[in-house]
Amino acid sequence: MEILIDRSSPTPIYLQICQQVRGMIASGALPPGFRLPPERRLAAALGVTRGTVLAAYRELRADALVDARVGRGTSVLAQRFHAQPSPAGDVPWNQLFRAAAARPQDPLVRDLLELSERTDVVSFGIGLPAPELLPVSTLHHLLDEVMAEAGAAALLHSPTEGHTPLRETLAELMAARGIRCGPAEVLVVSGSQQGLDLAARAFIDPGDPVVVEEPSYFGGLQAFRAVQARLLPVPADEEGMRTDVLESLLRRQRPKLIYVLPTFQNPSGHVMGLARRRRLLELAASFQVPVLEDDPYSELRYEGEPLPSLKALDEAGVVLYLSTFSKTLFPGMRVGWLVAPRPVVRQFALIKQSSDLHSSTPGQFLVERFIRRGYWAPFVRASRSAYTARRDAMLEALAAQAPEGMTWRRPEGGFYVWGRLPNGVSMTRLLGAAASAGVTFLPGRPCFIDEPGGEFVRLNFSHPSEERIRDGVRRLAAAIASSTERPRAGTPAPIETRPIV
Amino acid sequence: MEILIDRSSPTPIYLQICQQVRGMIASGALPPGFRLPPERRLAAALGVTRGTVLAAYRELRADALVDARVGRGTSVLAQRFHAQPSPAGDVPWNQLFRAAAARPQDPLVRDLLELSERTDVVSFGIGLPAPELLPVSTLHHLLDEVMAEAGAAALLHSPTEGHTPLRETLAELMAARGIRCGPAEVLVVSGSQQGLDLAARAFIDPGDPVVVEEPSYFGGLQAFRAVQARLLPVPADEEGMRTDVLESLLRRQRPKLIYVLPTFQNPSGHVMGLARRRRLLELAASFQVPVLEDDPYSELRYEGEPLPSLKALDEAGVVLYLSTFSKTLFPGMRVGWLVAPRPVVRQFALIKQSSDLHSSTPGQFLVERFIRRGYWAPFVRASRSAYTARRDAMLEALAAQAPEGMTWRRPEGGFYVWGRLPNGVSMTRLLGAAASAGVTFLPGRPCFIDEPGGEFVRLNFSHPSEERIRDGVRRLAAAIASSTERPRAGTPAPIETRPIV
After folding, report:
1. Which string of b and e fits B31-40 if b means at least 16 CB within 10 Å?
2. To the nearest whole angstrom, how far is the Cα of B19 from the nearest Cα of chain A?
3. Inter-residue contact A125 to B354 (CB < 8 Å)
4. Quick check: A270 and A240 in contact, CB under 8 A?
5. What is the DSSP string of A98-118?
6. B105, B155, B290 member nearest A330 (Cβ)
7. Residues A188/A359, Cβ–Cβ less than 8 Å
8. CA atoms of B368 and B377, how far apart (whole Å)
9. Closest chain A C-alpha to B187 CA, distance in angstroms
10. Mutation site for A-interface testing, chosen from B58, B79, B93, B137 by largest number of A Cβ within 10 Å
């Protein structure tokens, strides 16, 4: 397998590799089953970084030209299909998409999901539950019951608002979280990402302002950007969103929505204090701005006392509460839920109807049965205990290994350690060095709006095992150390212009 | 249970009934388990139509105050929850929703779905497959295998574009439909409704024109209206969309998309002829307008020779092909797919990522296995044979029972008989009379854009059994006969202003 790299070409090197391998597969030079060299070896042979080869192989996988299976490396797939693509014609698709849609969005989640599947990479990059904790046999058994008892009903349509018994069960689950609601105030959604999307589509016209914490969950920012919201970041400190800044903002602007993750915030891990919670609700009620409370993590508290959710404290009826089973039970069936006043549930259901009619029927039957049978509380307890150990493993490994100047927070719950890199680390270099070292993380950048955020990293500890956490922190520490730029002599330190919120 | 109707009140009667029953439940006057009187009896007692009582009970069900179970009537649910709603405050939600979203959309699908679940109503209203045909035990068995073999992988995240083995299997299925594509040109969607939504969000800015057939699928119209498209209807005749009208339109307008259901069109059942198909593609290629081909029904042909899909004939690469398992296999797991040029798959995947991350993982595993094991072709053959018998039962019943002046088409495939009512039938009266008689249908109105369409009805024959089809046609014929208005003597015939396309 001979590959020629042209370093003077404007085509990125990973695409050069990808194109040449694609040509060899199309011509039959690389037959089905042929194993491509391991990334590390090819990288060494070509004199490029491992990240470059990784990116090339990722493209080939996306085209279903090769497949990477655990322990078998990357091999050429049988091209049962025509090697030449179907007529792509000369249609200028990028001109045909709407201007807002064609704006290249950040494919970061997809790339991180993909990298996290590789066994040779320690993934701190994405917020997944531990696969080992998944109660597969219980769920298998319950699914078996559902199919035997409900039969066709479990495979047919269910109401747009959700399977009624599940809505009832969720209303009871809410009572355990201190939230009083009836099933008519519950809307089942296809994962909480859909809840964010529905909120964006229900409230936001292009240019409408939305208040968000800075930093915030990038999937939320993505949903608001998709409807061309104008994001108004409010800085967060150890006590969460700064309500003094929010107040001065509300006196000058008329946001359509305040988006906030008050408990074990993603990415920072912050918990909004009780006084701030009350003040936020006062402001929202007095300015009549709905609050979208995103709460995927509150059940996963490892120390300290629980605080009431915004929804539980909400006397004015301004809070829309969003939660999900993706961070606790499983993400694959796309089951989340919204608790909101009935006019909101109605409006969201109308939009949901034209988006996907309803959420997966068997998924809803399964979750309902899992909770009703009493599996939920012990499962959450077991998760808490496992994640406490993983968090501690990460904190200990960081204390032992992190390079001088790096700082991080000890989170009381949730999925993430939020860290700040030592001065002088180049994020571009670090991303390459980490990929070469076989470790991923989420760079802070996509979680910020106005601030650069380039010095932050989000490290997930729920997905990898304790042993892999220790291994990954070692790899990361080495990558950071090798990515530090020395300030050039004679060059003045760059001036950073910080926008005023 | 005493209910007082105030006919002079501006509150609709069904809401008066609903509010009084709600009050009695809240006060405990109607305890949990209390059976509400059958609709027919309450309607007679109050001197209102059965449709009015049906609407009131539907509201109560939506509030989870009562439950209607097959054979048990409607009974009061245990109010485990606070009877008083959680604080709804004084938030003016309808002012807070964006203007476009707050526009009341048509909740027709939801209402029809709900009515179709009642065993005492013969539903010709919605396009559902026959529940008896659903291969429950095979699917149960395959799901069992999936859980045993794939375990956690079947419950975790899958790629936004779809589970790779399913994309490969779908590419092979496409070959059987004469469409050459590779898995990279396949995007798995959460039902074809999501495909319509993604197309709308990828191509349409508010005010952008979209060409649609008139009449057309109302779920498609709904998806385009949700993004504020300007719908440009092109009339269809027995040969499908009139390409001469399309051509003159394309000379004057610049639509962003042409939306068409060429085979067993919903609602009309028309099949676009081969010459028209070729002409449509020529026009689309020459004006560079993408064609969204919606093809849920083409496998369900009961007579005549299959025609190639637009996608199979497409040499310019302008066709986006959308199909689904909801009309054949099952609708509950929300699995549909799009075949399109790769730039389109990429763009749609980015929008899908921020909408729901990905489609149900176990649903994708299950469908993939069902096809790979060879269950698909025999299942479709069995469905064809059952639906042929049901179509014939409906055509025979109509021939025997339909009132004079009513006409209808014999469809060669698909799910619907498209009928035209005799002159002088009031649709408003007919909807009430049909609900009272215990039969539903889809009125033509929501399928039209400019034309009134009030004289058309869409009758589904795939869902009810042959016996119920005969019973339902009898009920419908009687309802039509009782809803005919005599033209008033001395009043001139109304002038209908037909908009020019």
Report:
1. eeeeebbebe
2. 15
3. no
4. yes
5. -HHHHSPP-THHHHHHHHHT-
6. B155
7. yes
8. 13
9. 12
10. B93
Q: Do A194 and B152 touch (CB under 8 A)?
A: no
Q: Span A220-243, mean pLDDT?
A: 94
Q: How, if at all, do strands B319-324 and B336-339 pair?
A: antiparallel
Cβ distance B444 to B214 under 8 Å?
no
Measured distance CA(A239)–CA(A244) in Å, rounded: 12
| Average of per-residue pLDDT values in chain B | 88
Strand-pair category, B442-443 with A66-69 = unpaired
Most distant CA pair in chain A: distance in Å? 77
Rounded (5°) CA angle B238-B242-B245: 155
Query: Tokens 């990429």 map to which residue?
Result: B346
CA distance A145 to chain B (A): 10
Alpha helices (runs of H) in B204-273, residue ranges in sequence order = 218-226, 243-252
Take residue B424 and report the two structure tokens written for it: 């002088």
Test B362 with A363 for CB contact under 8 angstroms.
yes
Q: Give me the residues paired with residue B439 across strands.
A: B122
Nearest Cα neighbor of A25 from A73, A64, A72, A58 is A64
- Which residue matches tokens 């330190």? A493
Would you say B389 and B130 are in contact if contact means Cβ atoms under 8 Å apart? Answer: no
Q: Which ranges in A177-328 belong to alpha helices (H)?
A: 192-203, 218-226, 243-252, 274-287, 310-313
pLDDT bucket at B82, cuts 50 / 70 / 90? very low
Q: pTM for the whole thing?
A: 0.80
Cα nearest neighbour of A227 on chain B = B201
Closest B-chain CA to A286 = B91
DSSP A225-265: HHTT-EEEEEEEETTEE-HHHHHHHHHH---SEEEE--SS-
Residue B401 structure tokens? 């029972």
DSSP state of A36: P
Residues of A in contact with B322 (CB under 8 A): none
Q: Which of A99-108, A447-456, B309-318 has the lowest mean pLDDT?
A: A99-108
* Tally of CB atoms within 10 A around A489: 5
Distance from CA of B493 to the nearest CA of A (A): 38
Q: Higher confidence at residue B94 or residue B446?
A: B446
Q: Which of B156, B320, B346 to mutate to test the interface with A (most CBs of A within 10 A)?
A: B156
Tell me whether residues A156 and B349 touch, CB distance under 8 A. Answer: no
Check CB contact under 8 Å for B183 and A316.
Answer: no
Q: With CB atoms and an 8 Å threshold, state whether A205 touches B98.
A: yes
Q: Write out pLDDT tens, residues A338-359.
A: 999 999 999 999 899 889 989 9
Place of tokens 């005749």: B237
Residues of B in Cβ contact (< 8 Å) with A226 = 201, 351, 354
Tracing tokens 């009903």 back to the chain, one arrives at A153
Whether B217 contacts B267, CB under 8 Å:
yes
Q: Is the separation of the CB atoms in B229 and B278 below 8 Å?
A: no
The Cα–Cα gap between A4 and B45 comes to: 87
**What is the C-alpha separation between B12 and B442, in angstroms, rounded?**
23
Q: From the list B92, B100, B347, which residue is nearest A101 (CB)?
A: B347
State both tokens at B440: 């539903």
The β-bridge relationship of strands A291-294 and A257-260 is: parallel
Cα-Cα-Cα-Cα torsion B385, B390, B393, B397, nearest 10 degrees, comes to -160
**What is the Cα–Cα distance from B348 to B184, expressed in whole angstroms?**
13
If one compares A304 and B428, the residue with the highest pLDDT of the two is A304
d(CA B183, CA B344): 13
Among B181, B197, B357, beta carbon nearest to A191: B357
Nearest to B91 among A85, A171, A317 (CB): A317
Whether B322 and B192 have beta carbons less than 8 Å apart is answered as: yes
Query: What is the predicted ipTM?
Result: 0.77
